[in-house]
Design brief:
Helices cover 6% and strands 44% of the residues. The protein is globular and about 55 Å long. The protein contains two helices and 15 strands. The strands form five sheets. A six-stranded antiparallel beta sheet has the order 3-4-5-13-8-11, with no helix packed on it. Strands 10-9-12 form a three-stranded antiparallel beta sheet, with no helix packed on it. The chain binds D-sorbitol-6-phosphate and zinc ion (ZN). The site of D-sorbitol-6-phosphate has 14 residues, from strand 5, strand 12 and strand 13.
C-alpha cells in the first residue's frame, strides 16, 4: 500500500495540516516602494502577497530543505508593480530555486557588490538564485503571479540590508512594459 503524501501543491497554495501561511499587506511595506506617498494613499489592508510554507525539519537544520509558494497580487504603486520585500539569506552562502507556476513577473537578483539583473518569470521558467544574492519578485501582469521555491533549512532571512539600502534597481511600468531602471 502506498502512503498518501503529507503535502500537496496546486497552482497557487500548499495544502496540508503542517502548512504555514504568511500574508503581507500594504501596511507592512513602509518605504519599500519608491513613491511612499502613493503607498500611503492606498487602502492599507490591501493584500500584496501570501506565502505558504512547508518546513519538514526545524529552522536551521543542516542539510534540510524547505518548500514554499508565493502568490503576488496584481497592482501598482504609481508605476511600480507590487513586489516582495526581498532578502539575502542570513547564511549568505545558501542558494535557492524558484520556478514560475502562473502569471508573469520578474526576479530581481543583486550581488554583494550591488550588481543587478532581472530574469523574466513565466509559467515553466526555472530560476537558480546563487549564494550571496539578494532576491525580490515582482508581479508585472494583471493576474496573480505564483511561483514555487525550495531552499536550505539553515538559510534564514536577512531583510536588514535591503531595508536600509534597498536594491540597486527597480522595475517600473514604462510605455506599458516592465523595465528595469538601475539607480
Ligand atoms: C525564502 C524564499 C521565499 C520568500 C517569499 C517572500 O527563502 O525566497 O519563500 O520568502 O517569496 O519574499 P520575502 O522577501 O518577503 O521573504
Ligand atoms: Zn530566499
Amino acid at each position: 500500500m502506498l502512503q498518501q503524501p503529507a503535502i500537496t501543491f496546486s497552482v497557487d497554495v500548499l495544502k496540508g495540516k503542517e502548512v504555514i501561511t504568511k500574508s503581507t499587506y500594504l501596511a507592512d511595506l513602509t518605504n519599500l516602494f519608491k513613491n511612499e506617498e502613493a503607498r500611503l494613499d492606498m487602502p492599507q489592508d490591501q493584500l500584496i502577497y501570501r506565502v505558504t510554507l512547508y518546513k519538514p525539519v526545524a529552522e536551521g537544520t543542516p542539510g534540510g530543505l524547505f518548500f514554499g509558494t508565493t502568490i503576488i497580487e496584481p497592482g501598482q504603486i504609481a508605476t511600480e508593480y507590487f513586489m516582495t520585500r526581498g532578502h539575502f539569506h542570513a547564511r549568505g552562502d545558501r542558494a535557492e530555486y524558484y520556478w514560475c507556476i502562473q502569471g508573469e513577473g520578474a526576479l530581481l537578483l543583486m550581488d554583494r557588490k550591488r550588481n543587478i539583473r532581472a530574469e523574466r518569470m513565466y509559467p515553466g521558467s526555472l530560476h537558480y538564485i546563487p549564494a550571496h544574492t539578494a532576491h525580490r519578485t515582482i508581479n508585472t501582469s494583471t493576474e496573480p503571479l505564483s511561483f514555487g521555491a525550495c531552499w536550505p533549512a539553515d538559510a534564514g532571512y536577512d531583510y536588514e540590508g535591503i531595508a536600509h539600502h534597498g536594491f540597486s534597481g527597480r522595475i517600473f511600468q514604462v510605455d506599458n512594459v516592465p523595465q528595469l531602471v538601475k539607480l
